[in-house]
Amino acid sequence: MQAYILDQNYQNINFNKQPLEKGEYENCTFRNCSFEYADLSGFSFTDCEFTGCNLSMAKLVKASFRDTAFKECKMLGLQFNDCNDFGLSFTFDECLLNNAVFYKTSIKKTVFKNSRLIETDFAECDLSNSVFKNCDLSGAIFDNTSLEKADFRTSFNYSIDPTLNRLKKAKFSLSEVHGLLYKLDIEIERD
Questions:
Q1: Are 120 and 98 in contact (CB under 8 A)?
Q2: By its UniProt entry, which InterPro entries does this protein fall under (predicted)?
């Protein structure tokens, strides 16, 4: 039987040296904790907040994240496609999500704010109504991705092929329109 932990605060803990008890965590906060290379498989986090944590390369097989907020977290190489997809929902603010994999996840209405998503894989995702606010999307992969009503107006360095992705009513800024037209091999002058 898994533990059920409610309303707990964890601070400055290295969970590689002192593993987190496997279970369901609800309304818990994790501040300045290290989960680097930790095995979070089968864990459940609901209404939790991670601030200033390092979750890089953590294993997420069947992990659940429901209404979970990540702020100022280092999250390199995470395989979100391994998560339990039931109710999968989170927000990211000032996070490093380089080389993360969201392949085939349904994460509608996700907010990515002031984050780096370099070479992040969004292939075959449903990102409808998601917001990318002031995000660096250099080398991010969008292939057969649903971006309907997504907002990219303040983000930059993206390359999105409109012929391979669903973009109906998505929002982009004129200054970054070259990220939609790159495949046409045309020259666009920036003012």
A1: yes
A2: 5peptide_repeat (IPR001646), PA_immunity-related (IPR052949)
